[in-house]
Structure formats: structure tokens, C-alpha cells
Specification:
Blueprint: E1 2-6, H1 10-21, E2 25-30, H2 41-44, E3 48-51, H3 58-67, E4 72-74, H4 83-93, E5 96-99, H5 105-121, E6 128-135, H6 145-157, E7 163-166, E8 174-181, E9 188-194, E10 199-205, H7 210-223, E11 228-230, H8 232-236
Parallel strand pairs: 1-2, 1-3, 3-4, 4-5, 5-11, 6-8, 7-8
Antiparallel strand pairs: 6-9, 9-10
Helix pairs in contact: 1-7, 5-6
């Protein structure tokens, strides 16, 4: 498989390493200083693009790929309020986008565990709910896309909660998400159910970026020949 990398930070370099190890070829690398290469022969020769950049440029990068009928795997978070418009374009024009807030297998299992626990805790209103996420100081969006995904899973399964909010909740219907940025932390997410009697805490901690990079490359392998908006649920058949 020939891959175009869009974004060549720490994640891009990790994806390059994993993809090469799995026998794939990186034929084009596009970063902020060579945007003209979207129109290059090297980009056109790719089978698929993998995009890990920043929230303010992710949507335009995806659209540039669509202009060249290039399928895209995107792991950039912080821009998905505009995902419905992209989805409409995908359905209209037959494009391919695999998007995930987190490509780690462990995190996606963590999502399912949180769904199961939320269904149970719906019957125990004495427990309030809090989310905490910790990432490296270079991460631009807060809360993280992973934390938002977790919050939305809980909202779908706990009737007494209606929305999430960054930092302190203003009402009992809100789930607060506390974002911490320190050092080079890859990503730690915790869900707390807290009552006057006890607390239940679920935590997932990423040890390195290789798990994320591997997931992105496997997602690219999975996406070839498919159409539409794809997700980790499709890849892992988690439902």
C-alpha cells in the first residue's frame, strides 16, 4: 500500500515507522510548509492518506484529499463539530473517510466498558459522574476527542445527564471534563462515579504512541476499497 502522510509531527513519524515495518511505502509527506504537494504526482500515486495535524486545518486537508478522490484516515480531534458537513459530502460524492477520536485498541475496549457501566449506573442516581483527561503540553484541543467520546457514550446511557461541560459543572445534569496538560503524557483518561459512600474509577493510560500509529495503519488497510464514513466500531466489529 502506498501512503501519503499529512502531518509529520511525532504521530506522523510514528506512523511512518509502523507502516514501513508492515511493508507499506510512504510516497508523499505533506506538512505546513509544502501544501502545494497536494497537487503533486507523488500525492496522486498514493492509495490512501493518513492525516494527523491540528484542529484548524484538518477539515481543509480532508477536502483537498476528496478533490483528488483520495480516501483518508484522520486522527485529528477538536474539529468534529464540522463532521456532519463532511458526512453529507461523503454521501453525496462517494468519498471515504475513516475518523476516530482514538485509534488504540485498548481505548476502544475502554469505550465499550464505559457503555456497559453507564447502563448499570443509570439505576444508581446517588453517584455523580466526572471525567479527567491528561495529555502532553503540546496538545491543542481540550477536552480531548477521546474524553468527549467517553462523555457522549455516558450521555446516551444515563438519563439524569444531558450534556458535558469543560471544567466545573453548572448543574447536576452536566458531566464535567477536567483537562490537564503536563509533560509528555501520551494520554490518560479516567471516569469517576462518586457518591457519599464510595467511588468507582475506570482509567486507561497510553504508554506510547505506537498503539495509536498501529491502529491508524490498520485502519488504512481496512479502508481500501470501501466507501463512506468509517469508524473503529466498523474495524473492530464492536457494535
Amino acid at each position: 500500500m502506498k501512503i501519503a502522510l499529512i502531518g509529520y509531527g511525532k504521530m506522523g513519524k510514528s506512523i511512518e515507522k509502523i507502516a514501513t515495518r508492515r511493508g507499506h511505502q510512504i510516497v508523499c509527506i505533506i506538512d505546513e510548509n509544502n501544501q502545494q504537494d497536494f497537487d503533486s504526482g507523488q500525492f496522486a500515486s498514493a492509495d490512501i492518506a493518513i492525516e494527523f495535524t491540528a484542529p484548524d486545518v484538518a477539515e481543509q486537508n480532508i477536502r483537498k484529499c476528496f478533490q483528488h478522490s483520495m480516501p483518508v484516515v484522520c486522527g485529528t480531534t477538536g474539529w468534529t463539530n464540522r463532521l456532519p458537513a463532511i458526512k453529507d459530502e461523503i454521501e453525496k460524492n462517494g468519498n471515504t473517510l475513516f475518523w476516530a477520536s482514538n485509534f488504540s485498541l485498548g481505548v476502544n475496549v475502554f469505550f465499550q466498558i464505559n457503555k456497559y457501566l453507564a447502563k448499570i449506573m443509570n439505576d444508581f442516581p446517588s453517584y455523580d459522574i466526572f471525567l479527567e483527561e491528561i495529555h502532553h503540553i503540546h496538545k491543542k484541543d481540550a477536552p480531548s476527542g477521546t474524553a468527549i467520546t467517553i462523555a457522549e457514550i455516558i450521555l446516551q446511557n444515563i438519563e439524569r445527564k444531558t450534556s458535558w461541560v469543560k471544567d466545573d459543572a453548572q448543574s447536576s445534569e452536566q458531566i464535567p471534563i477536567f483537562s490537564i496538560r503536563e509533560g509528555e503524557v501520551v494520554g490518560t483518561h479516567s471516569v469517576l462515579y462518586k457518591s457519599e459512600m464510595d467511588s468507582i474509577v475506570l482509567t486507561h493510560e497510553m504508554k506510547n504512541r505506537e498503539g495509536l500509529a498501529l491502529g491508524a495503519v490498520v485502519a488504512a488497510e481496512f479502508s481500501l476499497g470501501k466507501k463512506g464514513l468509517l469508524s473503529m466500531n466498523d474495524l473492530l466489529e464492536l457494535g
